[in-house]
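From the shared-data thread, chain only:
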Amino acid sequence: MKLQQAVHWGCTVGVALLLAACGGGSGSAPEPAPAAVPDMPAADRIEPFDPSLVRTLKAATAAVAAPPAAARAPKAKTVRLGPLAAPLLQSLQKAAMPNPAKGMRQQIGLAREVAATATAPGLRGQLQWSPTERGTQHAAIRFEAQGALGVRLGLLVRALPPGSTLRFYAQAGAAVVEVSGDEVLRTLARNLQAGDTGDAARTYWSPDFGGADTTLELELPAHADLAQLDIAVPTLSHFFVPPESAAQPGLSAVGAAGSCNVDLSCRPDVGSESRSVARMLFVENGRTFLCTGTLLNDAQSSATPYFLSANHCISTQSVASSLTTDWFFRSSACNSGEVYAGAQRLNGGATLLYAQAATDTAFMRLNAAPPAGIVFAGSYFGAVAQGAGLAGIHHPQGDLQKFSEGSVTQFDNCTLQSCLASTPQDGRFLNVGWRLGTVESGSSGSGLFLPIGSKRYVVGQLMGSAASCQNPGGANYYGRFDLAFQAALRNWLKPVPGAPIGQAPQ
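Structure, as tokens:
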């Protein structure tokens, strides 16, 4: 979440004056219970879809495979970066702590320059090629950032020989992420076609493995021209707070959220909706961030992995290409504090379809199919009334899924700096007050669910908040889904018959 000033009950004030000027604070009375929501016209909503009730999803293309046998793994030189200076590390960790007066996407990693492999000749000089039993050749290089809690490599790629394969793994990891050279080049071409420029558009970000090292292995045809291998690693992202690990056992940042958060596993009534929500990790200019997003169904229940989050989280294709998502990242049982054994990470990035600051909307299509067991959330694009009861599902501080419950207090118009009270007709944001739970850094982009009948439907995504465990009466601002739907999202989620998907009718 990112909000430098906050608004409550129609007044715009600096954060320091919020409580005194607007009546918020821990002494505020809780929001009254909302009135029952009547059943609304089916034409104004898209129903949720559980594919496990119909068919099994295809496996993700960014596969996690068994690691190469030790005898076959190429010998890897190690490029080492020293630990972060203690004052810098303490400053970064302090900045990543919850701040009740300022919401933001949560930064968990910073960019570090890697001089030894900053150029393609520098990287090639580090590689020791050897033949494989498959009649190809391979080489590897290991990057270690001492003290890092995760390392993502920024591969600056200008050319790869045909038939190339890239693999990423930790020195002692139990998993390998493999991607073809063609897929890397397609990802970078997608960045450039979207209008992104510079080295950021030509950088492919590796996954992380939850520790201080990540290894890059390259496999090429036996007679490949190594002069065509124009690849460098000038930057890596050094995680200074968890998370964690791309391998299933290490998806942790457990216990980071404030104590007033409600463990979602204690609310079995939202178990279906929880399966549509994922924790997001992504890289922008070498810095790694956390947000939350929601998988959305379309009117055809096509199982296309449309994914909703906030524009202030992801607003460019290059950043979307770096996206990894963690699914079923919740507790194993109510208040157990232990990660559910079925938590899974999905690599492969996303294709950014629509990004708009007016409602702080980022709408994407994941490039790999999400894991089996997910649910595509339903959505409602009709009017939401003041006083309507709502629920939030999110990953505050990157923690296990949490649940918040409240109601709409008013409508606002917001930027990332301030909000002003508006009307239901003109306000682009829902101002929500919590009765139960809160939101924090890392909750940004998370979906707001409206109950209709026995189901819940997405009606917005989180931009920012002044609420916290210390300030439960603070305001929470969600971009209106109905406005983004009418502006663009309907062209993918509920296209006019005969119109190409993703294109507005003429």
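The longest strand covers residues 402-414.
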